[in-house]
Amino acid sequence: MSQNFYDVLNVSRDSSADDVKKAYKKAALAHHPDKGGDPEKFKEVATAAETLTDERKRRDYDSALVRARSRDGMRFSGDERSRSMQAPSAPSRSSYERSASANKGPTPGGMPPRPPPQGAVEIPSDPSGLSVKELRELLTALSINHEGCLEKSDLITLLTNRKNAKAGDGAPQSAWAAEKPCTPRQRTSAEGTENQPGQANKATPQTSAKNGPRAIRIKCLSLGSENVGKSCIIKRFCEGRFVQKYITTIGVDYGVKPMQVSGRNAKVNFFDTSGGDEYKDIRVEFYGDTQAVVMVYDVTNLRSFKELDSWIEEADRCKCPISKLQKTGDAPPFVILCANKSDLPRRAVSKDEGMDFASRHGFYYYETSAATGDSVMEAFSYLFEKVVRHHDEVRSKLQM
What we know:
Blueprint: H1 5-9, H2 17-31, H3 39-52, H4 55-68, H5 78-86, H6 95-102, E1 120-122, H7 132-141, H8 152-168, E2 176-178, E3 187-188, E4 193-194, E5 207-208, E6 212-213, E7 216-223, H9 230-239, E8 252-261, E9 264-273, H10 280-283, E10 292-298, H11 302-306, H12 308-317, E11 334-340, H13 351-361, E12 364-367, H14 376-399
Parallel strand pairs: 7-9, 7-10, 10-11, 11-12
Antiparallel strand pairs: 1-2, 3-4, 5-6, 8-9
């Protein structure tokens, strides 16, 4: 078998469902792309959790392990596993330091490599071999802001630009680049740099040799109770299809969709959250830097409508105010309120009730159906146009 779901989550075969969920929460935060992790590893972790938290799937998987004589989940058992988890680990260098050392070749005369100067950080000759997490560690050590970058290619570009800048200053092109202590970070947008208030903006829009202007990054978060159709709406928008089989989102799902918004290249990074309380600890980690929110309720489920207030409160506690009652001005994150499953009979929430709620909080109201596709494209298009328009207005003011 190619899968090793127990080993991926670092749990044994006799672990309870609660143990699996706890292990998933830890692994999801460690490997989520927004936290510097590997997208493929994150998908593997999510698949493992989905299998091992479903009683039928886990039973079938365990049977397959026995037939294949797999050792998955048998690395630890009983007291041995407890001792392993409690044993202190030896201190080690950071991952980017290990990778950087590997890039150093022998020095002339067979002498050992020259140690780095005090307080310096080494830039590897070929950073493409580093993982996303390692690249983020290295950029942080170099005091290079990378909050607006979610893809590996963008992180490598920032690192390459720094190395080229060092060489262009007349300094010898060496792997070692001494850095000053961290200064207050400047917020980097996808197309350039927006300086702190009161500072002159000298940056020009970044461009790609192949694709012209760099795509605008949009972080979009879905909010709403369980089984209201958040994942189905996103899939309908991204793939133009409806998934009839309902699968509960485990923690926070992630995906990227390149698209054209108002004639501009954009990449929408979707963070599809789980509505269940059991994954709240994971969900609350992903409110930061959100520019767009898709809030969803089920028009046939009155409870999902009444719980919208609790979602607004949670976002505010996580320093992501989404209601106009909590923030000032017309600023991100912009929010669309989707009254979903509007194609179904026996409504429990009227259109007037939904529109009144949206008006009170400054949301943009849409009656949607993931099944039929009604108003889904219109809702998302409007939302992302608002984000791009605000992005351009901010850049225009800073450049003036």
